[in-house]
Amino acid sequence: MQYTIPHYYNKFHCVAGACSDTCCAGWFIMIDDRSRRRYRTQKGEFGERLRRSIDWKNNSFKQYNRRCAFLNKDNLCDMYVEAGPEMLCKTCRDYPRHTEEYEGAREISLSLSCEEAARLILGTREKVRFLTKEDDREESYEYFDFLLYTKLMDSRDVLFSFLQNRSISCSLRMAMALGLTHDIQRRIRKDRLYKVDELLKRYAGEGAEKAIGAKLADRRITGPARFEKMLSWFGIFQKLEVLNADWPRYIGTLKKLLFDEGAAVYEDNRISFYRYLIEDEERKKQWELWSEQLLVYFVFTYYCGAVYDGQPYAKMKLAVVSTLLIQEMAQAVFKMREGRLDFSEFVHLSHRFSREVEHSDQNLNALDRIFCTDSRFGLDSILSLL
Ligand code: SF4
């Protein structure tokens, strides 16, 4: 078995009681079958408490004031304190580690939804590297499309090289990544997977950057057209399952700040925001860096999952659209803070987005469907907003 992690992975430390937005509040913690069986038969007073604190029908811990029944007033887990880490269910043991499974391979990332992990991901200045190690464990799936998986792995390496190319703007990096996956998708549809290698070579060639740069300049929109399009993109949040009870209020406030005063005010704020970024070289660099780390994070986590549904283009759209929506949310915070945005605010809003969007299969599936069918997220439409 091959295991892959991003190079910053082992630097993560949970800050437990000092956490600004603990993972033990706000959402339901689902209990795996093995832990459930153990909890049912636990003896003594602690066993009694366990059984009282579980919603057996929903397979989750009960909540009081939206906090896990085991989360004490110091924001520490009573189960951990009283019975040790081995008593934790799989969700609590693993989080914020996230594992994607492929035949003979595991890819483990840290989830952006943990604010401490988000700080690590977005605060990484160097290009993310991926470390692998292997053990003797073997497995074989009943059905696994190894040819597609190989093409996805190869194309993901090319995507990383685009997304980490710091000699060009992040907008152009995103456009190249979208263009490549759009063309890969076409080859998958036409059953011409064997042509992917040739495509990768073409995109890695000198002319690609120039051609896509010209396309991008041609499509880009500003003013009322951009306002309308971005407003309609924000509509996708209404199609998603709400995981945290205060999310509608949070995203509603940002949406109001951005759009309620109309297209001219939206555009003024956008221009002020980009002026604020470019007037300071370090700030501008940092903004590009945050975007790069978000894109690499989303692509590492989700792109190869296309081996199960044959939709790599939708996975790339997930990375780009999520990054653009987070950037818009940052513009709203910039307005709220009367013309400034710092690292901790960017970390906070990125983790809020992730907490809401990434931790529901229902939401990820809904986004997949939207990106495959909704013309608001067609290639030209996304390019126009880059
Ligand atoms: S959100 Fe992250 S840092 Fe906070 S308690 Fe959970 S794992 Fe620890």
Q: How would you describe this protein?
A:
- By secondary structure, the chain is of the alpha+beta class.
- Helix content is 57%, strand content 8%.
- It folds into two domains: 24-94, no CATH class; 146-384, no CATH class.
- It has helices at residues 33-41, 44-52, 78-83, 90-94, 115-123, 146-163, 170-189, 196-204, 206-219, 223-234, 247-259, 263-278, 281-302, 312-336, 343-357, 361-373, 379-384, and strands at residues 2-6, 54-55, 60-61, 63-64, 67-68, 97-102, 105-110, 130-134.
- The chain has a four-stranded mixed beta sheet. The chain has a two-stranded antiparallel ribbon with strand order 2-3. The protein has a two-stranded antiparallel sheet with strand order 4-5.
- A hairpin with a 4-residue loop joins strand 2 (54-55) and strand 3.
- It starts with a strand and ends with a helix.
- Residues 14-16, 19, 22-23, 95-96, 114, 116 line the site of iron/sulfur cluster.
User: How many beta strands in the DSSP annotation?
Assistant: 8
- The percentage of residues in β strands lies in 5-15%
Can you count the helices? 17
- Class derived from helix and strand content: alpha+beta
The low-confidence runs, each spanning 5 or more residues with pLDDT under 50, are none
**Order of helix and strand elements from N to C terminus:** EHHEEEEHHEEHEHHHHHHHHHHHH
Q: Tell me the domain tally.
A: 2
Determine the mean pLDDT.
95
| Widest sheet: strand ordering | 6-7-1-8
Rounded radius of gyration (Å): 22 Å
